[in-house]
Specification:
The chain has one domain. The protein contains eleven helices and no strands. The protein is globular and about 50 Å long.
Length: 191
């Protein structure tokens, strides 16, 4: 979590599910228990990024909030917050979260702009301001992320992972449990 950027309660709830339960932490713990300890697959204790495995892992994490709390996740968040004296309109929070999820694809466009079309960082920054509705400091952070050689190929893992894993969960019996406990590939998600 980047403590230098402002965060909304909507993003905080999503990040908690994304990073902890039932997201990244749960995935690593479940795969460690099943694949490493039960099946002896030592190779599964290494997570290599950016690889297709990253797309599956980010897909798990970006779908985690809805899996944990259901399609109306912010009804649950609003109930918890009301016990703390904090008001949250769950319908508005749901729409903001949905829109923010859709805007994740803009970052992939920025990667193409920079690395395929030869765009400048200034053009990328302006694109994020207009199309991702990002504030200046957020656009600068994303532009740095997309231009970092270690992460520039990683950015599509969020939006594409969300889409592919979400579709897999919707069509497969115990789809999310399978994502957490099996070493699935992107081809498995498309099948």
């Amino acid at each position: 979590m980047n403590a230098e950027l402002p965060i909304t309660i909507i993003l905080l709830a999503s990040l908690a599910a994304h990073e902890a339960y039932p997201g990244h932490h749960t995935e690593r713990a479940a795969k460690d228990a099943r694949l490493l300890r039960a099946l002896g697959r030592v190779e599964t204790c290494v997570a290599v990024a950016p690889t297709p495995e990253s797309l599956v892992s980010e897909g798990i994490a970006t779908n985690a909030l809805e899996v944990a709390l259901g399609p109306e996740a912010f009804d649950v968040v609003a109930d918890v917050l009301s016990d703390l004296g904090v008001a949250l309109d769950p319908a508005e929070a749901h729409e903001v979260h949905r829109a923010e999820s859709e805007l994740d694809a803009v970052v992939t466009n920025v990667a193409f702009l920079l690395h395929e079309d030869g765009g400048t960082t200034e053009e990328a920054h302006a694109y994020l301001l207009e199309w991702a509705l990002a504030r200046d400091e957020r656009a600068a952070h994303v532009t740095r992320f997309v231009t970092d050689p270690a992460s520039r190929a990683y950015v599509s893992a969020y939006s594409d992972g969300r889409r592919l894993c979400g579709a897999f969960v919707a069509r497969e019996k115990d789809g999310f449990a399978r994502l957490l406990t099996e070493q699935l590939t992107t081809a498995d998600l498309l099948a």
